[in-house]
Amino acid sequence: MRALNIILPILLISLFACKSKRYTPLPISAPTLEKGESLFNINNDSAFYYFNLVATSATDSLEVAMAYTYMGIIQAYEGDYYGGQESLLKSLTYLDEHRKEDQECLSSDYHELGNICLNLKNYEAAIGYYYKALQYIKHPNARAIALNSIALTYQKKGEYDQAIDIFKSLLAKSTEKKKEYARALSNYAKTKWLKDSTYPAAPELQYALQIRTDSNDSRGLNASYAHLSDYYSTSMPDSALYYAEKRYEIARQINSPDNEAEALQKLITLSPAKLLRPYFIRYQYLTDSIQTAKNAAKNQFALIRYEAEKNKADNLQLQKDNAQKEIQLIVQWFILVLTILFFISVGIVILLRYRRRRRQLEAASRQAIQEHLLKTSQKVHDVVANGLYRIMTDVQYTESINKDQLVDRIESLYERSRDISYEQPTISNLPFHDRITDLLTSFASDNLRVLIIGNNPMLWAHTNAPVQIEVEHILQELLINMKKHSQAHSVLIKFERQNGLVHIHYTDDGIGLPPQFKYGNGLRNTENRIKKIGGQFTFEHPAKGLKIHISFPTPPSS
Questions:
Q1: Under a CB-based contact definition with an 8 Å cutoff, are residues 487 and 510 in contact?
Q2: 142, part of any domain
Q3: Domain carrying residue 544
C-alpha cells in the first residue's frame, strides 16, 4: 500500500490552511495559482504546468513555496520520487520557520519529504522529516496522521516497541473518531503480531474491519484486508486467500494500481496453481503499466519545466529586443547609408586601379613573352639548327657513316633540345599524385598495360616542388626508354614510404637489358636527376623483363 495514500489528507489540510493564512498575493500570479489548485488531483499534468508558471514567475515567496509544494506532491504521487524531493527542498528555501503564515506549508513539505523517504526505504530520514513536520502541525487530525506515519515507519524499520507506543497513544485519543480509531487499532494489532507471532490479533483486526465497513471507508478497508491476509497467511491459508481476494476487489474499486499490484502478489502466493495464470498475466501487465506511467510522468514533468524555462527566456529576450528595436533600426539605416556610400567610393577607386593595373600587367606579359620567344629562338638556333647542320654535313660528305655514332649524335641533339624546355618548368595546379597518374597512364595502349600502386596524396605530402619536378622527369624518362626499347606488354610502378624514404619500384615484362648494356644520355640524365635529389637506384635482371628500384629521402616541409 503506497504511503502517499495515507498521508495525502494531511498535505491537503496543511496546504489549504496555509492558503487561508497567507498574505494577499500579487494579482499577476494569483489567478495562475488558483487555476493550478482547481486542477489538482483532476488533471495533474495541467496543474503541474500552472504551478510551474507560479514557481518561475511569481514574486511572493509564499506563493512560490506553495507552487513547489504542489509540484512535489504531484511528482511523488506519479512515482517521480527524486523529482518530488527536489521540488519540496526548493520550496523550503522560500519559507521562514519564524513566520507564522509559512508554518503550515513547512509542515506539508516536511511530511511529504518523510513520505518520499519512506517509499525509498530511507527510514531514518523519513522519521526525521515527520518529526520536523509535527513542530508546525496544529490541526488535531493532521497530527494524528503524522504520528501514524511515524509509527508505520518504525514498524517497517523493525522497531516495534516505538511503533506500539505511538499507536497506543493514538487509540487513547481517537475513541470518539471511528475512522481514526479503526486505523490506529488495525496498525496496532498488526505491529503487535509482527513483534510476537503468537499474539492473537484477529479480534482487533476484525473489529477495525467492521468499523470501516460500517463507515464505508474504502481506503481503510483496503488496509484491513491487507492486514488480515498477512495475519492468516501461515495459520489459515484459505482465510488469507479470501481477504487477499477482497483486497483485490476493493483496490480495483478505488482505482489504485499500486494496491492492486500488491493484492495480486498476495494472490499469486496463496492461490492454487490452476488459478495463477490470470493473476500472473494481470500482475505483469499492471507492473509494466505502472512503470511506464512513472517514466512517462518523469519525462512529462521535465518537459513542462523545460518548455516553461524556454518560454520565459524567449519572452525576456523578446522584450529586450523590442525595447531596442527603434534605436537599432535608426542606427542600422544610418550605417546602411554610410556603407553604401563607402562601397561606392571604394568601388570607383578599385575599378580605376584595376584598369591601370591590368594595362601594366598586359604590357609586362607581352614583354615577357617577347623576351622568352627571343631567348627560345636563340637556343633553338644555337642548339638544334647548328647541331642538325653539322649532322647533315657529315652525312653529305662522309662516305662511310657509323650508324651507332649517328644515332648517339641525334639522341644527344634530342636531349639538348629537350633541355631547352627544362630551363623554366611550369608548375601545374593539378595535385602531384594526379599529375603522376596522368603521366604514367599516358603511355598505356592496346598492347601495353600500365599498373600503378601506392600513388596517393599522403605519399607526396612532404616533398617539395623541386623534388616533384625531378621525380616527374625521372618517371617520364623510364617510360620513354621502356617504350623505345623494352617491347613490354605490362608495366608495374609501385610507390611506398619507409623509414623516411620514398621508394619507387619499376617492373616490366619486356626483353630486359643486354649484358654489355651501356647508358645512353637519357639514362645518364635520369641517374643525374636521382643523385640531385639525394637518391639511389639499382637495376635487377630477372629471367624476363627489367626491375629498377629508386629511393630518395623526403625533404623537410617548407
A1: yes
A2: yes
A3: 425-553
452 vs 459: CA distance, rounded Å: 13
| φ/ψ (deg, to 5) at 105 | -70, -35
Specify the DSSP class assigned to residue 257. H
What pLDDT digit, counting tens, does each position of 19-61 carry?
433 333 334 344 578 888 888 888 888 888 888 888 888 888 9
Backbone φ and ψ for 277, nearest 5 degrees, come out as: -55, -55
**CATH number of the domain residue 85 falls in:** 1.25.40.10
Predicted TM-score (pTM) of the model is: 0.51
Domain closes at, from 157, 191, 210 = 157
Please state, in angstroms and rounded to a whole number, the distance separating the CA atoms of residues 219 and 183.
Answer: 10
> Rounded CA gap, 100 and 98, in Å?
6
What are the CA-CA distances from residue 199 to residues 306, 365, 506 (Å)? Answer: 54, 117, 102
Contact 459, 433 (CB under 8 A): yes
The last residue of one of the domains, among 157, 181, 211, is: 157
Q: Rounded to the nearest 10 degrees, what angle do helices 3-21 and 140-157 cross at?
A: 150
Residues recorded for the chain: 558
How many domains, in total, are found in the chain? 2
User: Is the residue at 504 inside a domain?
Assistant: yes
The three cell numbers locating residue 29: 500570479
In a domain, 15, yes or no: yes
Q: What is the pLDDT of residues 291-329, one digit of tens each?
A: 776 676 666 766 666 665 555 555 556 666 666 777 777
